[in-house]
Design brief:
The chain has 6 domains: 89 residues; 59 residues, Homeodomain-like (Arc Repressor Mutant, subunit A); 203 residues, Ribonuclease H-like superfamily/Ribonuclease H (Nucleotidyltransferase, domain 5); 66 residues, SH3 type barrels; 32 residues; 71 residues. The strands form 6 sheets. Strands 5-4-1-6-7 form a 5-stranded mixed β-sheet. Strands 11, 12, 15, 16 and 17 form a 5-stranded antiparallel β-sheet that branches. The longest helix is centred in the last third of the chain and has 36 residues. It has 582 residues and is α+β, with helices and mostly antiparallel strands. The N and C termini lie far apart (107 Å). Helix content is 48%, strand content 14%.
Length: 582
């Protein structure tokens, strides 16, 4: 709560007496907005931006500087500013509340309403209100309206309500990250936070030749804000995530990890057979059996979808947007090597030289080193880390006479050929395909097997890009072959046939009109057959129908014969020279 001097700053002295006669919550709201508008006025005066852009930036900064206060939008800020200009401080008083809709109900009724809502069956508020009305009639209790009950339910602490409605596991998986954002409640090395960030204002030319916005997969220590591992990539994938995770796990294995809810963080190499659709819902601990669990991480959490406040790393991304991107030449197209070098220098500066009041005036490295000077650091053996973080083949492969076939090449040495004919597993580094690590069926290391011949790719990204190009080349050849065949069919006498009226959903087919010696006698046979049948000549209408049918067939035959002659002439011109035609 602000002191009296700060609260009354900006208020008209003639209105202070009227403000003091208002309800307490209205006075607090007026003084809060006076302080906010004073800060915004100072920010607007020092900024060169227009009102809209300055309001949007001020809202973001205000949320970071005052994390415990109620947030507001840029639209609300401009609205309050206009109200203050027109009506002074009194215009900032909220319009809700008062005694006109006041309803007093007993603590017993409130306790019963809370009991109804905080139930494992997860009833709706409407159901609770109906049940509360029935209970009130039976016990002669006054029951409030649905709106009052709704406000009362919203006043119940979310952690308490969800604990009884969804269970302890749900609270720990969904609400724990947002409750543990306070750095004072955790120590360095206790919680890693991982997420992806795209640099929307920066353009980079990737090795594939495409120019786009780079992504970074980043792992941060929640307590010290130390950046432990990162990977710059064209698109966030499981490979970039594993590379960043490997760098972080080399330094220290944390007891707990908080992941983003994206699919690359919920992939099998990260969480084993953990079902993706349950990654932020009720799950069993033994379901999470990925690389982090095997490395010794005790708790794995997934953030709430659509709730960036549940991830402390989002604050880091805001710092990156304000400091790092602002220092770049946004009109320049960087190469990937240049951008990685610049970002690496910024990470070193952030960990070593950047100091924050939230960290007690210390840098991230100082806070990290101070903690681990008196506490043990959890390390993992390099061989075990390689086994956990390297990508695995989807299935066992057989060692052939040329070695192991993988990534369009053969991997061969004398050690692996001693296991010729056996099925083995192999692991590989996505950034280095020059060698693979072969393992037996019991995951015992056999050897590091080098690639036999040189190839045009050295990492998984280049290999996948070449596979895409090869696929496109084959599709282009197949499409061109179809076009050539269609042109040849038309030239030989094929013509498109319209879809039948009985089956309009079926597409037209290419059919060939073939004429035989029987075409000329077909009408005569049809006419004789019609005359020979007694039913066909039993009435005048039947004879007229047969005659009309015969006329239609004759016209169609003449039209088809003309088209056939035209096709024959065209084919004759295509297959003969002018001298032969003469």
């Amino acid at each position: 709560m602000r002191d009296q001097k700060d609260r009354e700053e900006g208020a008209n002295p003639a209105q202070i007496e009227q403000i003091e006669r208002l309800a307490g919550y209205k006075r607090e709201e007026i003084y809060r907005w006076l302080a906010v508008l004073n800060e915004f006025g100072s920010y607007l005066g020092s900024s060169k931006k227009n009102l809209t852009n300055a309001a949007e930036d001020f809202v973001k900064v205000y949320r970071l500087v005052h994390p415990g206060e109620q947030g507001f939008s840029a639209k609300t800020l401009k609205k309050k500013r206009n109200l203050y200009k027109k009506g002074g401080a009194l215009a900032l008083a909220p319009g809700y509340g008062g005694t006109q809709n006041f309803f007093e109900w007993s603590d017993r009724a409130k306790a019963h309403a809370k009991l109804l809502y905080c139930s494992p069956s997860e009833p709706t508020m409407r159901y609770c209100h109906r049940e509360l009305e029935i209970w009130g009639r039976e016990n002669n209790e006054s029951i409030p309206s649905y709106g009052i009950l709704k406000r009362f339910i919203h006043s119940i602490p979310l952690e308490e309500a969800m604990y009884y409605r969804k269970g302890e596991r749900w609270v720990r998986e969904n609400l724990w990250p947002s409750m543990r954002r306070d750095r004072a409640s955790i120590h360095p090395g206790q919680l890693y936070v991982a997420d992806n960030k795209v640099f929307m204002r920066v353009k980079v030319e990737f090795p594939t030749g495409r120019v786009g916005h780079p992504w970074v997969a980043l792992y941060e220590d929640a307590a010290s804000t130390k950046i432990l591992g990162y990977e710059i990539c064209e698109t966030p994938t499981i490979d970039s995530n594993i590379t960043a995770a490997t760098a972080a796990l080399k330094i220290h294995v944390p007891p707990e990890v908080l992941f983003d809810s994206g699919p690359d963080f919920a992939a099998k190499p990260m969480t084993g057979q953990h079902p993706r659709r349950f990654r932020w819902r009720k799950v069993q601990l033994d379901e999470v059996t990925g690389m982090f669990t095997l490395a010794g991480v005790e708790e794995i959490h997934f953030s709430i979808p659509g709730n960036p406040r549940s991830k402390p790393v989002e604050r880091k991304f805001w710092t990156v947007e304000l400091d790092f991107e602002a220092a770049l030449d946004l009109g320049k197209v960087y190469t990937l090597e240049e951008f990685v070098t610049i970002f690496d220098k910024w990470v070193n500066w952030h960990n070593q030289d950047w100091k924050s009041e939230a960290l007690g005036g210390k840098s991230a490295n100082e806070l990290w080193n101070q903690w681990f000077a008196t506490h043990e650091m959890r390390k993992i053996a390099p061989s075990a880390l390689r086994l956990l973080t390297m990508r695995s083949a989807p299935r066992a492969v057989k060692v052939g006479r040329f070695g192991i076939r993988a990534f369009g090449a053969y991997y061969y040495n004398s050690e692996i050929m001693e296991h010729g004919g056996e099925s083995v597993f192999y692991k590989f580094d996505p950034q280095n395909l020059a060698e693979i690590w072969a393992y037996s069926q019991r995951w015992e290391l056999i050897a590091r097997v080098p690639r036999r011949d040189a190839t045009a790719w050295d990492d998984i990204a280049a290999y996948k890009e070449l596979k895409k190009l090869e696929k496109r080349r084959k599709e282009a050849i197949r499409d061109r072959r179809k076009i050539d065949e269609t042109i040849a069919d038309f030239q030989r006498g094929y013509r498109p046939r319209q879809a039948s009226g009985e089956h309009p959903d079926k597409p037209a087919k290419l059919v060939r009109v073939v004429r035989t010696v029987f075409d000329n006698i077909a009408p005569q046979k049809m006419e004789k057959t019609a005359v020979a049948q007694p039913e066909a000549v039993s009435s005048l209408s039947m004879r007229e129908a047969l005659q009309a049918s015969y006329d239609r067939q004759e016209r169609a035959r003449s039209r088809d014969e003309q088209e056939l002659n035209q096709l024959r002439e065209a084919f004759f011109r295509l297959t003969t020279s002018e001298d032969e035609r003469k």
